[in-house]
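SAMPLE LOG
Freezer: B-3
Tube label: C17
Construct: single chain, 237 aa
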Amino acid sequence: MTLDDAALVRREYETEERQEQRSLYGWAVYEGPDPREHALLALAAGRPRRLLDAGCGTGAFAARAAGVLGVEVVGVDQSERMVELTRERGVEALVADVRRLPFPDGLFDAVSALWLLYHVDELDRALAEIARVLAPGGRFVSVHNSERHLAELWGRDTASTFTAENGADALRRHFWRVEAHEVRGAATFVTRDNLLGYLRAFEILHGRDETGRAEAVRLPLRVTCQNVVFVASGGRG
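STRUCTURE (predicted):
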């Protein structure tokens, strides 16, 4: 089972509970810059008027972008529940597949996608669609984990189809210009209950019981958070 398995992704994001359980911020004390804020800064630099947030989830980032940037935001997600939650935040949203976006060419000045692309099983098709709906001069801003993200807990991740290390190559197939901005922080698991809660949240996603990892570490456990913010522009058509 892989992270881009379509049935798995639908099941894991059918409701907000599973997504919230996998959030590191809910289980550990985080220190350092927030990659989501770096994504906002990258979007702001392009001065967009209309933003598409692909894989909008609960709509938290879409709503923040609308408020901070003062732009019109549309969210899309394959989960009806996620679309409902996004609308409850006052953001326009619809059920849609990033591989088949229901928008005309060049409709958006910017597209954002936070921790989405490693869940897409037809990556080039999705990137082509994102490039298609971007207006000339628009930018695509995405956030991804490094293969070394939380290495003290997981080891090196080589299973994801899209990471900080290999993502630029995929983006360059569809965009002329690709920039990568590394964002590093740290998180500390203070109690074993919190560490076990975080590990249990990945049982279905990884297809195995991960709680045994808690027995091999000493607390408090400090882990390194490594993310990258990609900024891509100039669609290749």
